Amino acid sequence: MGQNRQKTGKPRELQVDKAIAYIDFDQVNIGSVTPVKSTINENEEILFDNEHFKLWRIKSNDKFTVGFKDEPAILVCKDGIGSMTYNSNKYSIHKGEVILLSAIIRPLSLHLDESITLLQIALPEISKK
Predict the structure, then answer these.
(1) Above 60 in pLDDT, residue 104?
(2) Are 75 and 66 in contact (CB under 8 A)?
């Protein structure tokens, strides 16, 4: 069994066997996700969008809006460069970077320096608590 270090720096046993005990191996096969083109924006593909989890993939050569009204969002830049302005401050996002947009931030315009591929993730349940 693997080991991990506590805050004290001393090793402790990982509880892999207990974690495995909670896995439901009889759960129905979920299968792969088929992206669905957004009816609002042709550059967006919806991978998941339900009351628990949203995951959209956006590929664009032109500016577009990011974020959700009254929901926190995570932006993951897979490729390209863009920037947003909030409260007169400019925030850039580059390939490999992640930005958290708080639920109090309204949707923002993402201006592109080059074409971009972005994952936009939200957890709607969090904003309802």
Answers:
(1) yes
(2) yes
